[in-house]
Structures are given as C-alpha cells and as structure tokens.
Design goal:
Distance between the termini: 40 Å
Strand content: over 45%
Order of helices and strands: EEEEEEEEEEE
Number of helices: 0
Structural class: mainly beta
Helix content: under 10%
Radius of gyration: 13 Å
C-alpha cells in the first residue's frame, strides 16, 4: 500500500521560509517520481514541482521557480519542499503525490502539472501572512 504523509506546514510571514516533508512508503522510492501540488482557497489544485527519482531531474512551475526547491533523502524515502521568500499567494493546502508506476509525472517541461496519480497525501496547510 502506497502511503504519503506530509508535515511541516504552518503560519509564516511573507518573506519567510518553511520546509515541508513527505514521508513515503509502499513503493520503490528511487524508481518513481514525486510531485508537490497545492490548492489555494477558491482555486483548483495545481502542480508546482516534481522530482524524477530515477535520475534526479526536477521541474518547477514558473511562479515558484527560484524560491522552492524539491529534494529527497532516499535512505528515508522522504521528499522535501524547501519554500523560501514566501508570498501571501503561496497560501494553500500542499499535497505530495507519487507516480506509481512511473508514467507521466516529471517526464519533461510542464509535466509537474500531470495529476493522474492515484496516490496522494492528505495535505498540509501553509498560511503566509502579509
């Protein structure tokens, strides 16, 4: 059974930083891709970053590129999202997901938006105050 559990959310002031963690289990971590999505209040869920664990390739949505960094600790089957210079518009529930078996997530530019995965975490709230 694939499991993904997010942690690390909270309230931060604009310009601050947070690091989200997603502990995974139930699949071959290094043979798949991991994505981070978010749903802002009143908006649809959107993909913002992904990492293809087979070769370490990453892709980012333009609005977070240069501010957010996705990384992993393979020994712990954990993926992180370091979020710096946070803005009020980053306020959202953040979700991690795994493309198991590997198909379309993180296979090229823009592929962080692919949302056809069946396995998702429950989400963690990030609130950025102005």
């Amino acid at each position: 059974e694939v499991r993904l559990v997010e942690s690390g959310g909270g309230v931060v002031q604009a310009g601050g930083s947070l690091r989200l963690s997603c502990v995974t289990s139930g699949f071959a971590f290094d043979e798949n891709a991991i994505g981070w999505f978010r749903r802002a209040p009143g908006k649809e869920r959107e993909g913002i970053a992904c990492r293809r664990n087979t070769d370490g390739r990453t892709y980012y949505k333009g609005s977070v590129k240069g501010r957010f960094t996705i990384s992993v600790d393979s020994a712990k089957s954990t993926v992180y999202l370091q979020m710096d210079n946070l803005k009020p518009e980053d306020t959202a529930v953040y979700y991690c997901t795994a493309d198991v078996p590997l198909s379309h997530l993180c296979q090229g530019p823009g592929s962080y938006e692919y949302s056809g995965m069946s396995d998702w975490g429950k989400g963690i709230l990030v609130t950025v105050s102005s």
